[in-house]
Amino acid sequence: MADRPRPPSQESFAWWRPAREVETTMLPRITDPPPEPAPAAAAPVVVPRQRDAETELLPRAAAAPPPEPRAPNVTRQASRWDRTVTMPVLGLAPELLALSAIGVVLVAVAYFGGRLGAAYAGPLYWAGHVLVYTPIVFRLLSRKLTGFTESFLLVMGLAVNQYLLKWLYSPDQLRFPDELQHWLSTSIVLETGRLFQPNTALPVAAHFPGLEEIGAGVASLTGLPVTASGLLVAGILHLVFVGALFMLVRSAGGTPPLAGATCALYATALHYLFFDSMYLYQTAALPFLVLAIWATRRWRRREPGYLPYAVVGLVSIAVVTVSHHITAFAMVGALGLLALADLVLPARPRRWSTVSLAGTAAVVVTAWLVFVATEVLDYLAEPVTSLLSGLTHIFSAGGSAQSLAPANPLWELVVEAVGLLCLFVLLVRAGATAIRTRERDAWQWALIAGSALFFGTSTLRFIGADGPELAGRAATFTYIPMSMLAAATIVEWRRSLRPRLWPGPLGRLTTDASWARPAPLGAAMATLLMVGARAGGWPPYWEQLPGRYLVAGFERSVDAQSVAAAQWSRTGLAEDTRVAADTNGINLLSTYGRHDTVGASLYEGPVWGLRDQQLLASAAVDYLWVDLRMSQQLPAEGGYYPGDPDTGKHTAPLPRAGLTKFDGVPGVSRVYDSGDIEIYDMRGA
Amino acid sequence: MSRRAALLVAAAALVAAGAVLWPAPAALRVPAGLLLALVLPGIALTGALFGVRVLSTVERLVLPPALSAAVLVIGGLGLYAAGVHLGRVSWTALTAGTTVAAGAAVLATRRLRRQHADPQSVTETAMFGTVLVAERERLTVRTVFWRLVPLALALLLVTGAAALAIRATTAGRQPFTALSLAPAADSVATQPNRRAVVLSVRCEENGDVGYALRVAGDDGYQQTFAVTLPPGGTWTRTLQVPVTGTVTADLFMGTTAVPYRTVHLAGSR
To answer: What are the angstrom distances between the C-alpha of A322 and each of A214, A272, A317, A377?
Structure first.
């Protein structure tokens, strides 16, 4: 095996040199692989009368003594096993992927234990995650990495194993609210054969049908149910995204180890493991966002044959635009940033591909929002308003409204903070190096600007109640340049540490120490980031493991009893009616039941009174969903239902009398009872 | 893409379309459908678009599923705009048609195109300074076998993890029985002063359960039923109950005297 690739230049980020230097098309033609020493295993056997040129090339075989006479059948068997074949250099990828798969098994056992409430589940969960991730990232940063095949195999194997961690959490059904909303959209496409049909669970999704088209297409063609099709589609799109990211780094001049390291570092994004690989419209748009950027890198207007890249770029822009609004904005922003960098730091010859695609993306996205998805601005206004009010509050009152969701354990917050600090150090170092060397490459400055934006959006988590969610959502996009920059800096780390900077023990313990190499140092940092992302991302710490029912616990609230009640409501309740419910009830009734839903503040008082009667009338409630387990548990998320005025302040579960008071109200019917869940017909109240 | 490859992909698309459109077992239809949806159109389009360009291995692996998905998205919008019902036939026509058309484009334009690089040179390589190293090695079949054993082990392990996860979905599951009583949506009363209601029991307990049902209402109305249901079983009956007053249905499990589930339906006052 050869040593790790050496960059052509001694400057920092030299691996980001323009793709021309490393593109395979520009490389000298390879007609035959260079002769290599024959493996020892091939030495003893020379098969008589076998005119195999490859065998004859083996020097040891040629020099070997004549074989012992053997029975004909034995000779044939031996020749088959000892025949030589050429294959890609896999390096340690098979062994490391097997080790990573053991981590997958550990997490599966942890999930099983979580369902049974076993104490071993938590430690096993973290051990499994580390085993899935760390050996692979260590190898990707190692100098002994053999090249493209090993790097790509490790990256895709890691992506598969990490997707499995998500799938193993809930292999039988979609549970996250947004996934169920897209399950409903896809079901509607399958039933009606039409797009843009209203979806009461997520109205804005009706005008972004990209994911639903892929899901419905797969379901129609395979005959699989929507859930199975959705899981398949999400998994494949997730893998395409990772492959496209690898492809993008390669097209930007990155070596295979750098491309692999970038993908492995991106796997530490807050929402990478769950949110970005769920059956959501963002999952459909993300690969095409990366493809659009890749197309701009590959589009050379002054070279013949640029048209295919222009076509892929335009197709990618179109798919992103009709698939997801936020990704569409991110695409315009990313292409705009690259175009700006190209204009400020023009290349010779000047490239117009980025400017052209950025302009096209801006026009297409704007046209879609103006003429088709007109409600998007209203949909996005709420979180933006919340953000602005949080900012206003900071400047006027010296503080911000905090998120009302329960905070993570302290150790998880510390790990998250240390991880962010590491990234910040890498950004500062990259920026300082670029300034010192008077860097003129537009791509590098775009990366630094994008990475700075990552820290800018990370501060959103401290602003307003929706801050943490917004920061996590934004990180999906801003973490792409951050992971590229971090990978480039780590990969360059060893050379830049100036060996023998300090004499004596100080040097041996620091810059010259073996731990200061990219593999151990980078792998440790990446593991820290991964643990921080799993702790601070999705699912929240209180549902990292599947288990018994939790009130207002998102995935942990979706149990068989709740689903059965929601499914019954679709036929059991009258159509075009409104149902008041708790958080989980709203999630399931709006999707499986296809009802118009509203948060219920009817549970508080122990006795039915005038206030309840007025609330019922003002919210136009026809039916009421009551989950009696609300009288046994505090809400995991902080509130029992959307708009709960006591969110984050509950100190005791709701009184049971408040949940059973409806039985005594004249004209009210209890139409459904499954023990924990009751549904009331309130129209006669 | 070579002429033979283009023909092969187009033929595969037609075979897969046949498997999707004609009744075929799931073991055949699922892979055929997946090929049509996420593989073949992308391969053909990659060939048609990049026929004269040299693509790296990773580009050849990533572009086909991406372009196939794009065909579903953009083609689906086109079909919708044309007023075509999006169903099995239209999705099959779209994906198979795109594949065949792209394959035909490859064949039609192949002679007109100028090769930019010799395909022989398209070996994925790594840069080691200025030294180019081909990433292939020559091994004996025995060595290859042992090199691939860990990958097979990895596959075995994740399959085991998947089996455990599927099995675990029932672990810690709470059994339950659901009772419902709702006005019948599509039936009318067959007797005077009566209304039609639907009474239903769904059993999700751990084993077969014997239930006793008692339905009572005004004017001395009462009916009883004995029902035995297996796990996952459902029992439904449409009843004619009094229009006035409240009708109550109590479900008893086993021999207990306390109702296990109770529902009630208010009547006109």
So the answer is: 12, 22, 9, 15
